[in-house]
């Protein structure tokens, strides 16, 4: 379908409503107004029509003939890299060649610093990403439509969350983002699934282009990657976790590179937390207010801990985890926003109120006392892997395998 890029989809807020005054203290930190200029507003909304040109072209080639066989050839190339690439079809070679020249600013030593910092966070990172970034993201209904129409998070929610966790774990392995490391390969696999979903929903009779723009557009991907970086850093500070400037830069760098690999255009990749905070706010201008999809997805996410697998006292641990995560979401989002997501008054968020202080003190001590940081990172990573294992249970730790009613199924 051809789209007129000059048309602003109905999901976007009018420019006038984006012009909210920036508090003086925040303007001093950012060095500018938070609100977008007219040019920035137009650029963000124009990108609601943009997909992932390189991967979309590769998927189009897959569907020209022998789709299953061609998909298998693509997946082989993603797993094996340059090995035997000269014998691959020209379309696959052309795509792999787009990966050969990453942005010149990529610094793999800084990426590794970001990985080490994330390891040291332990399950605190999981609380922020799940209970703030993901739950809060559902309030922005602009990209909820893709999730609902794929059934990705309102059907089999536990499996979908675990698959996302697997991708995150792979991306945050040491050397994982090196060419054809575990995070590198998993990211390419997810990128292909995104393109398949984009193709499927773009042709779907129920997809309203005039209102939603292109499924899984550049801006939807931008907002998602900023959740893994900027939103995580903001959430950590709200939990009392100190973040040094170098650590902030490393986290931003890690996810900017990961999302370049995911197909986000370089012009949308930021180099600092302040740049990311501004861009995140600009992506909000493309989002509708909470609606029925927001509540559907939020309620499904809230129930996810009730399906986890634990070695002992499973019923009790499931219920405890359920209340812990709900309490965290209320602490991050507040009662008003939780009500918009369909949650009744939950009372005081007892878990974060009781645990934030001790958690922050323990983290700070281990992080800054000489000789303890390595142990903190090792123990933190072990806790992250244990949380992922509880999500998968006895199932294989794998990423998305679309079933027959999924737009990405072949």
Task: State the main characteristics.
single chain; 410 residues; mainly alpha; 0% strand; globular; disordered N terminus; MPAB/Lcp_cat_dom; oxidoreductase activity
Instruction: Quickly count the domains.
Output: 1
Report the radius of gyration as a whole number of Å. 21 Å
Specify the number of helices. Answer: 19
Helix content: 55-70%
Give the averaged pLDDT, no decimals: 89
Main sheet characteristics: none
Count of strand segments? 0
Unreliable stretches (pLDDT < 50, length at least 5) are: 1-5
State the end-to-end CA separation: 21 Å
Q: Per the principal axes of the C-alpha atoms, what is the gross shape?
A: globular
Structural class: mainly alpha
Q: What order do the helices and strands follow?
A: HHHHHHHHHHHHHHHHHHH
What does this 3D model show about the protein?
GO terms for molecular function: oxidoreductase activity. Residues 132-344 form the ER-bound oxygenase mpaB/mpaB'/Rubber oxygenase catalytic domain. It comes from Ketobacter alkanivorans. This is ER-bound oxygenase mpaB/mpaB'/Rubber oxygenase catalytic domain-containing protein. The chain is an all-alpha fold and 410 residues long. It has one domain (31-392). Helix content is 63%, strand content 0%. It contains 19 helices and no strands. The protein has helices spanning 15-18, 24-30, 38-46, 53-62, 67-80, 90-98, 108-121, 123-137, 144-150, 157-171, 182-202, 209-212, 218-238, 245-261, 273-284, 292-303, 314-340, 350-368, 373-392. Helix 4 (53-62) runs antiparallel to helix 6. The protein starts with 14 loop residues before the first helix and ends in an 18-residue tail after the last helix. The relative contact order is 0.15. The model is unreliable at 1-5 (pLDDT under 50).
């Amino acid at each position: 379908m051809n789209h007129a890029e000059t048309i602003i989809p109905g999901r976007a807020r009018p420019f006038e409503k984006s012009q909210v005054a920036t508090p003086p203290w925040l303007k001093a930190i950012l060095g500018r107004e938070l609100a977008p200029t007219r040019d920035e507003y137009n650029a963000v909304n124009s990108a609601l029509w943009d997909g992932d040109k390189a991967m979309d072209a590769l998927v189009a080639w897959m569907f020209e003939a022998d789709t299953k066989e061609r998909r298998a050839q693509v997946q082989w190339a993603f797993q094996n890299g340059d090995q035997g690439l000269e014998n691959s079809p020209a379309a696959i070679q052309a795509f792999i060649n787009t990966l050969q020249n990453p942005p010149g600013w990529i610094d793999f030593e800084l990426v590794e610093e970001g990985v080490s910092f994330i390891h040291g966070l332990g399950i605190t990172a999981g609380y922020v990403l799940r209970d703030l970034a993901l739950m809060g993201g559902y309030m922005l209904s602009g990209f909820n439509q893709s999730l609902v129409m794929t059934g990705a998070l309102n059907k089999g929610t536990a499996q979908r969350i675990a698959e996302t966790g697997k991708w995150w774990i792979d991306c945050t392995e040491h050397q994982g983002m090196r060419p054809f490391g575990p995070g590198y390969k998993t990211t390419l696999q997810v990128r292909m699934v995104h393109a398949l979903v984009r193709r499927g929903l773009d042709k779907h009779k129920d997809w309203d282009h005039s209102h939603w723009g292109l499924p899984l557009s550049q801006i939807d991907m931008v907002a998602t990657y900023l959740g893994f970086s900027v939103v995580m850093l903001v959430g950590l500070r709200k939990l009392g976790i100190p973040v040094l400037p170098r650590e902030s830069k490393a986290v931003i760098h890690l996810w900017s590179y990961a999302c370049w690999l995911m197909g986000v255009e370089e012009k949308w990749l930021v180099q600092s937390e302040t740049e990311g905070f501004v861009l995140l706010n600009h992506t909000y201008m493309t989002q509708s207010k909470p609606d029925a999809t927001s509540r559907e997805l939020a309620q499904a996410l809230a129930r996810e801990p009730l399906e986890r697998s634990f070695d002992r006292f499973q019923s009790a641990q499931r219920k405890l985890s359920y209340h812990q995560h709900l309490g965290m979401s209320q602490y991050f989002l507040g009662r008003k926003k939780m009500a918009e997501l369909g949650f009744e008054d939950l009372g005081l968020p007892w878990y974060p109120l009781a645990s934030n202080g001790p958690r922050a003190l323990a983290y700070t001590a281990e992080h800054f006392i000489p000789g303890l940081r390595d142990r903190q990172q090792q123990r933190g990573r072990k806790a992250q892997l244990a949380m992922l294992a509880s999500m998968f249970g006895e199932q294989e730790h794998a990423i998305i395998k679309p079933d027959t009613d999924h737009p990405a199924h072949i």
